[in-house]
Amino acid sequence: MAVQLEMGLDTFGDVTYDLNGKNLSQAQVIRNVVAEGVLADQLGLDFFGVGEHHRDDFAVSAPEVVLAAIAAQTKKIRLGSAVTVLSSDDPIRVFQRFSTIDAISKGRAEVIMGRGSFIESFPLFGFDLEQYEELFEEKLDLFAQILKGNPVNWSGNTRVPVAAQSVYPQPEGKLRTWIGVGGTPKSVLRAAHYGFPLMLAIIGGDPKGFKPFVDLYYKSLSQFNQRTQPIGVHSPGFIAKTDEEAKETIWPHYQTMMNRIGRDRGWPPISKEQFIQQIGSEGSLYVGSPETVAEKITATVKHLGVSRFDLKYSLGTLPHEDLMKCIELYGTKVVPLVREKLSQK
Description:
By secondary structure, the chain is α/β, with parallel strands linked by helices. It has helices at 26-42, 63-71, 91-104, 121-124, 132-147, 185-194, 211-223, 243-265, 272-279, 290-304, 320-343, and strands at residues 6-11, 47-50, 78-81, 84-85, 109-114, 152-154, 162-165, 176-181, 198-201, 231-239, 286-288, 308-312. The chain has 11 helices and 12 strands.
């Protein structure tokens, strides 16, 4: 029997407008994220992920605390990061925080490790960007050792050794750990080496272009004598009752977000034509009516052969009220449509 597709939601806790077009406080945004996670659970969704950032346009810098608040108010939904920037954190503390969430939620915690596409955490916590690769590789290796159980033995160049020491609390089961990959073969090989599930962050271009990474991952799992593991997709999108309503509602907020990030990275301003192209069949934005979004998700899942799809539903300054409507349409309309389409031969 085929494994049923898991369908989840991700948010970075973008600082949003109120209904009068004014920025909400970061504190209110965090409270809204908790409400969004609770709604996702009520709708029967499989996963709710919260990202980590250290900027004024994102409210969540401590996703584990937000996830713990959601865990205490939910019953079934799995809860995790999207992603944890392991390079600028301590693997032991990351494990302790997520094993604590796992205890609160009775085994529903997940952690998605990544290097992160934003670098603000490096100077903030005193890490050298010249060690960008080495920090992630060594800290991931330590985290993998911690997952094996106590006592932990590890040594490297970027922190003091761990010699026959124990880490608590230990989860009652196994803490599900993914590697988030933005599109580099080396990251895919790293995930396969440790036998961790692979989460593909497809945030630009044609999703079908990621098929070589899927093939490389499965081939590498075999070469490393690892068991077959799940592959997921994380992509941005927004759902409204009609295609036109979804497109016109999200565009100004998406434009604000992309242009702000673009100014930091030297990108030219995004045009509406580029936005429309990304909404199309060869783009990575899942924007439209429930029927349109379900069709596009189904096509991506079938082409890549993945077993989870997480919609990154928070896009810039879009108000909380619109996000809640999007979540409701995703849970009540899109998810059933996708599963129905996938069940058809």
